Amino acid sequence: MFTGFNLKRAALLFILRNLVLYLLLINAFLHFKGELRLLFLSATFILALLLSLWLEIARLRFLPSLLLVLFIPVLLRGIFFMVFGALQALSAGLEADLNFFYFDNDFFAALIPFFIVWLFNFLSLRYHLFTALEVALNALLLMVVFWSEANYRISLYPHPSFFAYFLLLFIFLEILVLVLSQKGRELVKQSQIEQSLSTELKSFLSFAWLLIPLLLILLFFILGRYSEGAVRAGGGLMKPTLFRFDFSQFIRLESDIKLSEDLVMLFRKEGPAQRLLLRRFILSGYDPGRGFYHLRKRGIEEFPVTVPDSVESFSDPGYLSRSEIKQEYFFINFDPTSLISINYPVKVTPLQNWESSSFLRIYRVLSRSSEALPFELEEGDREKLPDPVHRFYTEYGDDERIAGLAREITAGEDNYYRRVMLIRDYLKTNYFYSLKPGMSAEENQLHHFLFNSQKGYCSYFAFAMALLCRSIGIPARVAVGFYVDPAQEVLNFYEIRAFQAHAWSEVYFGDYGWIEVDATSEEIAPGEEFSFSFGFDINNFSRLIEEILNHQDELKVEEADGLELGERVFGIGRQVGAGILFLARLWYITIPLLYLLFICTVKLHLFVFFASASKERDKIKYLFRFSLIRPYGLGLIRSPEESIFEYAERMEREHGLQLTDWCACYLKAAFGREFNGSDFSNGLASYRSFISSYRSSYALYLRVLGFLNPINTLRSRG
Predict the structure, then answer these.
(1) Structural domain ending residue among the three candidates 172, 205, 233
(2) What is the mean pLDDT of the chain?
(3) How far is CA 445 from CA 32, 230, 454, 463, in A?
(4) Which residue of 487, 503, 621, 666 pairs with 459 in a disulfide if CB–CB is 3.0 to 4.6 A?
(5) Measured distance CA(180)–CA(49) in Å, rounded
(6) Residues 6+ apart with CB under 8 A from 36
(7) Residue 577 included in any domain
(8) 112 has which bridge partners?
(9) Of 540, 559, 578, which marks where a domain is finished?
(10) First-last CA distance in the chain
């Protein structure tokens, strides 16, 4: 017979177990959401639950239960087909005929979860030990459900964070199932039988805090690894932030990528439609093992990468042959802090957004874009960069094969501009664009591209262009952002989708500054077919444009609070905000550190009071309360019905902690009329005996976990 406690425990365990199974069913359904109906699968799930409960009440043995479970679906299918036949006789037509097809389409697919749910519940209700095995089987089912997500590719969820949250929930529920399924010691006292379910859960929660940092670390690695997969899915360049997308600050060459048509923003520019490059990051650093990466380094020209909170201007280096271009950006599915602009931004103006807007962020940029003609670049001044900067921008990993190819391409040509163009044209005409460049046998993807496969996507061409130039002393770097397709221009607006993520090179031309050089081939690799302009939705595009034009008068300059206090104060605030944002991005480090700081502050303050107290009585009282932190951290809590001395006796009797003498010294210090130096010395000796028994009773790792456990910390005040 179940006691009230055990009945509640069994009911909660049943609910949690089946919640895990239903979550697995939902994720399995995502594979076939266009073909199956979740309502049908859910009804099948409930039927299996009810059947398992009924068989448990009836106490049927396994074999007759199995035969009954095999018979019931056949019976139900026969009943439904009789109903469909009657409906077909009443109203003949295609719709009536399709009832049979639709039912069987769901019916045969639902048989698998039906039998799994029934079998798991039947065995778990009959055999207590099966619950632990079920957790392992659920983990196996999880692997089967997400088998298609191998190689860190997300297809079931719109964003990898959702997948991470599901895994965290799955793990947490399974831990609860394991805790609730454990058989405790034999209950021989009525007081033990009357323990409530909430008390047992509190005991679990005294160590559940440890799961939080572990799950955060798991979340970090999941998002990190799936970020790599998302880079492939974003044209090899984009990655997910927590809720939106942004460009990766380091680019590696992948063996294959796929294009996504997610709409990320609208871009507006006055003037004729033209192909433009919208830059997000400059990847100036290079490491042979790491690839190109974004680096801010003293002496290296820095560019803004975040949208300011108010109008901000940036120094203009005064490069020749540049004209001003005004742009407006309307973010839809992109990190709203990201600054995207045409090279070279000199002023950024954040704009106010209207209520119920379809856009996350709106801002305006004024850029000075190069209009230098080929003859100007060919005859222009070649003033070198400062030596340290020049060395930085010509670092190519001392790759002799790349340097040899660069010398071969530019042999006999001394003109700086024409050497750059020879490298660009060589890549454009001798290589193919491909989403599947293949894997290098020597683990050098760039060599594989240049000397073997001769096919790759934009990052391959950008890497090759920059490194070939660098190897012959021409400063170059990689830039990432979006290309603008002039074919998709409507009323000076352009639709920007994820597949337009692009990488190109920028080469230094002295007085003309950094000039964009895009070496990406337009020839598709043989055997591959895809379009660079798919996904254009004129109806949605028109709706978004209409929304912007209707709210044109509301596009006012966004002013930051407190700007009237002066640019200096505002600048300091922005730096503080940037620092906070930096720490927030390193949450997997800052959260554990803040947690440790909090624990140490809460638990060690009593020891600080002990050390600073002037009276010996107060020292003993503070030290005793500090000593209770140890057993309380291990979940050895004093019940409300116990006196502090009764608690000390129980700890010594049941756990071997020499707490009785130490508690007696504390009580004398707290309530005794006299307390002299001898009593103080005896108290310290009792404390040391308690600590010695505590260390001998519990391993080091348990003592550390007990100290870090925040549960019941405040109860140590006695």
Answers:
(1) 233
(2) 80
(3) 36, 19, 11, 11
(4) 503
(5) 20
(6) 29, 105, 106, 109, 110
(7) no
(8) none
(9) 559
(10) 40
CA distances to 295, 304, 578, 589, 590 from 585, in Å: 17, 18, 11, 9, 9
Structure tokens at 287: 């490491």
Residue type, 6: N
Q: List the structure tokens of 696.
A: 């001998």
* Contact between 292 and 463 (Cβ < 8 Å): yes
> pLDDT digit string (tens) for 671-681?
888 899 899 99
- Tell me how far apart the alpha carbons of residues 326 and 11 are, in angstroms, rounded to a whole number: 65
Nearest to 649 by CA among 634, 623, 667, 672: 667
Distance, in Å, from the CA atom of 404 to the CA atom of 396, rounded to the nearest integer, reads 12
Q: Which of 381, 333, 375 is nearest to 511 (CA)?
A: 381
Burial of 632 per CB tally in 10 Å (0-12, 13-18, 19+): buried
Q: Note the residue count of the chain.
A: 718
Cβ neighbours, 10 Å, residue 178: 14
The better pLDDT of the pair 22, 385 is held by 22
* pLDDT, tens digit (0-9, with 9 covering 90-100), for 434-452: 988 888 877 788 999 999 9
| Residue (of 480, 487, 452) closest to 466 by Cα position | 480
Asked, as a colleague might, if the bond just before 22 is cis with ω within 30 of 0, I would say no
How many domains in the chain?
A: 3
Pair 426, 549 in one domain: yes
Q: 485 — alpha (psi -120 to 50), left (phi > 0) or beta?
A: beta
Q: Which structural domain range is residue 680 located in?
A: 589-717
Which of 177, 167, 278, 269 minimizes the C-alpha distance to 226? Answer: 167
